[in-house]
Amino acid sequence: MKNLILAAAALVAVAGSASASGQGYNPNKLSNVDAAELTFYVRNVDVDSLTVAQVQSVQSALYGDEKGKVAALRAAVR
What we know:
This protein has one domain (2-76). Helices cover 63% and strands 0% of the residues. The chain contains four helices and no strands. The N and C termini lie far apart (57 Å). It is an all-alpha fold. Keywords: Signal. Residues 1-20 form the signal peptide. It comes from Frigidibacter mobilis. This is DUF4148 domain-containing protein.
């Protein structure tokens, strides 16, 4: 029983620190890796001001077919 309580406390501490540091998953924003790849292909894009539809389009372009990736990314952020 004592081990179960310790394990639960450790899990709560880890989950709490991840959410407090803002590292939780947010499907409406690009991850840091996706944002870095987007800015590599499309310079001077404001990643923080992308709409949900633009984020989804960027993710589709990044994880989709390699053919036409740059054109698809540019079209997504216009």
